[in-house]
Predict the 3D structure of the following.
Amino acid sequence: MRLLIGIAALAVSILVHAQYFPARPVRIVVPWPPSGNVDITARTVAPALGEALGQQVIVDNRAGAAGTIGSAAVAKSPPDGYTLLLGSSGTITAGPAVFKTLPYDPLRDFVAIGAIQSVPIVLTAALKTPASNYREFAALAKARP
């Protein structure tokens, strides 16, 4: 009987101290300035995410240093799910290839939740450029650096 009472008391204390997620607003950090493609995506996703979570979702633009300022802020935040990074190829994959040192490690400091957008990238040149496709352009760039 004492064992059952002890288990019941433990269960009640766990339930009393349990906190549902999210208990406060969630922040999506966009490491780019407002009105760019990543910002527009965040502002499109935030209302639906907020409705699904039953909590306000705030978009926080932290632009600068090619996305490293906002990314570093998220990497240094508590790992509690309340601060999310809307990363991009610039902050997650290109950053380590371009910068000698970063204030974050994309593999160690972040965990991918999922892809929410795919953006095609198009390379264009002036009509007078003597190249009409990527191979010709690459050859031209090598010949005339």
